[in-house]
Amino acid sequence: MRAREVRDLTDAEMQEKARDFGEELFRLRLRRGTGQLDDPMRLRKVRRDIARIKTIQHERIRETTKERS
Q1: CATH class of 3-68
Q2: Regions of the chain with pLDDT less than 50
Q3: DSSP letters along the chain, please?
């Protein structure tokens, strides 16, 4: 998921995506632990997607805080 795609999402949609990616990351970690992980790069992609979503959420929070000041 690209940053441009994340910025097009609403706050609620971003929360849902972050939750979904978190669950997927959990499942991938379990598979890695049992040796059943087919695509190890998927772990990296999911972690980066979560970070990207959290970064944009934080940017939005900062923007609203600046507007109030």
Answers
A1: mainly alpha
A2: none
A3: --HHHHHTS-HHHHHHHHHHHHHHHHHHHHHHHHT--S-THHHHHHHHHHHHHHHHHHHHHHHHHHHH-
